[in-house]
């Protein structure tokens, strides 16, 4: 599903959160894609906020990042509420 999500939106912040967690682990998009059984280009679209991740995708990303889906989403919701930083 495509999104017209600009900076500050939940979709954009979710993607930014995924990117930050990936980079904190020193992972490439390719490695996250392999660990989550997702396509590398789809990881890029999620990180840019150009697609809305499904619940199944949320679950796959969370498992790859060793988080619960709730914890991964919570990081995005907090970022959305608090703004940048």
Automatic annotation (TrEMBL):
Keyword tags: DNA-binding, Transcription, Transcription regulation
Pfam (any one): HTH_3
Transmembrane segments: none
Gene3D superfamilies: lambda repressor-like DNA-binding domains
UniProt keyword annotation of Transcription present: yes
Domain of life assignment: Bacteria
CDD domains: HTH_XRE (cd00093)
Protein name from the UniProt record: Helix-turn-helix transcriptional regulator
Organism: Duganella zoogloeoides
Lineage: Bacteria, Pseudomonadati, Pseudomonadota, Betaproteobacteria, Burkholderiales
């Amino acid at each position: 599903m495509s999104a017209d999500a600009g900076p500050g939106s939940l979709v954009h912040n979710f993607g930014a959160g995924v990117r930050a967690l990936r980079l904190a682990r020193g992972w490439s998009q390719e490695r996250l894609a392999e660990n989550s059984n997702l396509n590398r280009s789809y990881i890029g679209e999620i990180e840019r906020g150009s697609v809305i991740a499904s619940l199944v995708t949320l679950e796959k990303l969370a498992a790859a990042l060793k988080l619960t889906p709730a914890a991964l989403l919570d990081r995005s919701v907090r970022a959305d509420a608090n703004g940048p930083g």
